[in-house]
Write a structure and sequence with these properties.
The protein is built from seven helices and twelve strands. The chain is an alpha/beta fold and 282 residues long. It has two domains: 187 residues, Dipeptide transport protein (Rossmann fold, 3-Layer(aba) Sandwich); 61 residues, Dipeptide transport protein (Gyrase A, domain 2), CATH 3.30.1360.130. Strand 5 and strand 6 form a beta hairpin.
């Protein structure tokens, strides 16, 4: 059995504030904790019968996991030039999808630690076919196009509650309890890593019984950005309709195509945030 792990850092053990993840702060320390949480999920997958595990580092520049410390049974996808973003490498050969260290969406539960939706610098809200989604729900729908079901999540309690409203069958490891966007009640690594491993192993029993979150096309995305420039500059792509000063809409034939287009819009919006795009060649 093949398992794909989409990993993020805000929901891992010990993380409670953005300062901890800044390169000039405690980043190196939390890279290790990130890697350890991922290793716990890898171990649980193999405990439960996995024969192959692929991990996609999905935070920031997507090259945070320490390869020298990664479980040697797994393969790592690292680096930020990816058409498929947090799902690079996923295809229909996988039997299940794990989300390790993910977080709540922006605009959801105020207790969700470092809540945001893909790019906190620009995205305020994302709707897929009229339903507001966070990163996990978005990625689960993309995986559904490949016939791959979401089986496991780990993160804070608010995130777990949010995801289970949409994906009630997933196994979940709660590694902390949110107090505020930048505060949490934490469990120590010795406890969280054991919990992640146990829940990941239990998730393997869901293979074959949990249905993929498949959407039949066409698929419509409505995206609200944080300023007008971000929304406006995405219309350099002819398929994009600006529906309000800070909002856009587009429709694609299927979820995978829509996901790629959304990621492209986010890249444009990030570069347009402070006028970088318009002045790049001045």
């Amino acid at each position: 059995m093949k398992i794909f792990i989409s990993a993020d850092i805000e929901g891992v053990t010990g993380v409670a504030t953005n300062v901890q993840l800044m390169k000039e702060g405690e980043y190196q320390r939390f890279r290790r904790l990130y890697t350890q949480d991922v290793n716990a999920a890898i171990a649980g997958a193999f405990d439960g019968g996995a024969t192959e595990v692929v991990v996609a580092d999905g935070h920031g520049n997507m090259s945070n996991i320490l390869i020298e410390d990664l479980d040697e049974r797994a393969m790592l996808i690292s680096g930020s030039n990816r058409v498929m973003c947090q799902l690079e490498g996923l295809d229909s050969s996988f039997d299940g999808l794990f989300f390790v260290g993910h977080h709540g969406r922006e605009g959801g539960d105020v207790r969700a630690v470092i809540n945001h939706t893909l790019a906190g610098i620009c995205v305020t809200e994302l709707k897929v076919n009229g339903t507001v989604v966070g990163e996990t729900q978005l990625n689960a729908r993309v995986a559904g196009d490949f016939g791959v079901p979401a089986l496991f999540i780990s993160g804070d309690d608010a995130y777990v509650a949010e995801v289970k409203e949409d994906l009630p069958d997933v196994e979940a490891a709660i590694v902390k309890w949110g107090i505020d966007r930048y505060a949490a009640k934490l469990l120590p690594p010795a406890k969280t890593q054991l919990l992640i491993r146990e829940k990941a192993q239990a998730a393997m029993k869901l293979v074959g019984s949990v249905k993929p979150a498949r959407l039949k096309g066409p698929v419509t995305f409505d995206v609200t950005f944080k300023n007008t420039a971000q929304a406006h500059m995405t219309t350099t792509i002819p398929l994009i309709e600006q529906t309000a000063p800070t909002s856009i809409r587009f429709t694609s034939a299927d979820m995978v195509t829509a996901y790629k287009l959304f990621w492209g819009c986010v890249i444009i919006a990030m570069t347009a945030t402070n006028g970088v795009l318009s002045s790049a060649n001045a």
